[in-house]
Design a protein that fits this description.
Number of helices: 8
Number of strands: 16
Radius of gyration: 29 Å
Distance between the termini: 71 Å
Helix content: 25-40%
C-alpha cells in the first residue's frame, strides 16, 4: 500500500489552507454562531467536544486513505482560523465539498477563493474526476460561494434533506476535472448557461383553408383542441421545430412561413412560463384533410373550425388569441397570455 503523504499546506499568497492544530479548536468553537448552528442543524451552539471529535476524525480519515480532507482557512497576517473547507470522497473519483466561514470573516469573499484552491487540490493531488456540493435552496450565502468558486448548477433534489424537522430542497453545484477552467471564456459561459433562466419555446403553425377556417387537432393527451406543432428541442431553431412537429403529427410537410404571433405564456397548471411562436402555415383547400395522416397516438384527427366555434373547444388562451389571428392573419401579433401587449 502506498503511504499517504502528510496533509499539505496550500496558499495563494493571501489565503492559506492548512491542517487543523489543537489550538485551533478553542478559537473556532468561540467563533461558532447562530448562522452555523442553523445550517448545520444544531440545537443551540455546537459543543466544543463535538468540534474536537470532528478534528480528530478528520485527521484519522486523512491518515487512513484521505477519504476526507478538511483544511483550516487562514488569512495571511491574521491569527487564527477564518473558517474551513472540506472534500469528502463519496465514490471512486468523486468528492463532496463543504465549507464554513466564521462571522468576523464573512463578506470578504474568502470562501470562494478557498474552495477554488480546494478544487485544484482535489483534481490534482487527490486525483478526483468530479466534485460537487449540495446546498440548501434557501442558503443564499453558500450558493453565492459555489457560483464564485466556478461550480455549475446541475439540478435540484426536492425534499432530499431535513432542517429543523422539515423537508428541504437541495441544489447541486458541480465541476468535472475536464471542464474548462471557470476563469476562461468557455468555462464562464458554460457556468452561466447553468445559472441563467431557460424558457421553453413552443412553435405552432396556423393552417387555414379558403374559408378562413383554422386547422385544429384532437389530441390523445388532453381535451382541448390544439394547433399542430409543439415544443422546440434543444439546439433546434423554432421554425425547424415547427416543421418537424407538423411532419411527426400529421404525416406531411406543410409550409412554415412568417411569424404571425409571439406570445408570452405565464406559469399554468404546473408548467413554467414559456415563449410561444405562431407561424403562418398558408391557405389550403378544404380537401387538405384527406392528405393528412395523424400519428394516431399524439394526434387522433384534425379538422377545420371557424373562429366562432372555438369557445369551449380550445384552451382559454387560444380562445383569446386565435380569433385575433384569424381576423388579421397578415400582421404580427405581439401578445401576453393571448392578449395584446
Amino acid at each position: 500500500m502506498t503511504a499517504v503523504p502528510p496533509q499539505p499546506t496550500l496558499t495563494d499568497g493571501e489565503i492559506t489552507l492548512r491542517p487543523w492544530r489543537e489550538d485551533d479548536i478553542d478559537v473556532a468553537h468561540q467563533l461558532a454562531d447562530a448562522e452555523i448552528s442553523h445550517w448545520f442543524d444544531f440545537e443551540g451552539l455546537p459543543p466544543r467536544e463535538g468540534l474536537a471529535e470532528a478534528v480528530e476524525r478528520w485527521h484519522q480519515q486523512y491518515d487512513d486513505n484521505r477519504s476526507t480532507v478538511n483544511f483550516v482557512i487562514e488569512v495571511d497576517g491574521e491569527a487564527g482560523p477564518a473558517g474551513n473547507v472540506e472534500v469528502r470522497q463519496t465514490a471512486p473519483g468523486v468528492g463532496e465539498l463543504s465549507w464554513t466561514t466564521y462571522e468576523p470573516y464573512r463578506g470578504r469573499r474568502l470562501a470562494p477563493r478557498a474552495v477554488r484552491m480546494l478544487i485544484t487540490y482535489a483534481f490534482g493531488e487527490l486525483g478526483l474526476d468530479r466534485v460537487h456540493a449540495e446546498i440548501d435552496a434557501e442558503n443564499r450565502a453558500s450558493i453565492a460561494v459555489a457560483i464564485r468558486a466556478g461550480l455549475r448548477r446541475e439540478g435540484r433534489l426536492r425534499g432530499s434533506a431535513t432542517l429543523k424537522g422539515a423537508r428541504r430542497d437541495m441544489l447541486i453545484f458541480g465541476l468535472q476535472k475536464d471542464d474548462p477552467a471557470p476563469d476562461t471564456l468557455p468555462g464562464w459561459t458554460a457556468q452561466m448557461d447553468t445559472l441563467l433562466p431557460k424558457k421553453r419555446v413552443i412553435a405552432h403553425v396556423v393552417v387555414r383553408d379558403t374559408a378562413n377556417r383554422i386547422l385544429l387537432c384532437t389530441t390523445g393527451f388532453k381535451r382541448d383542441l390544439e394547433l399542430p406543432g409543439g415544443v422546440v428541442e434543444p439546439n433546434e431553431d423554432p421554425a425547424a421545430g415547427a416543421r418537424r412537429e407538423v411532419v411527426e403529427e400529421l404525416g406531411m410537410e406543410l409550409p412554415v412561413g412568417q411569424v404571425v404571433a409571439i406570445d408570452w405564456l405565464p406559469p399554468w397548471h404546473g408548467w413554467g412560463d414559456a415563449i410561444e411562436i405562431l407561424y403562418d402555415g398558408g391557405v389550403h383547400p378544404p380537401e387538405l384533410l384527406e392528405q393528412l395522416q395523424p400519428d394516431g397516438r399524439e394526434i387522433l384527427k384534425a379538422d377545420w373550425y371557424d373562429a366562432d366555434q372555438l369557445k369551449g373547444l380550445v384552451s382559454p388562451l387560444n380562445e383569446r388569441r386565435l380569433p385575433r389571428v384569424l381576423a388579421e392573419p397578415n400582421r404580427l401579433h405581439q401578445l401576453r397570455d393571448g392578449n395584446p401587449e
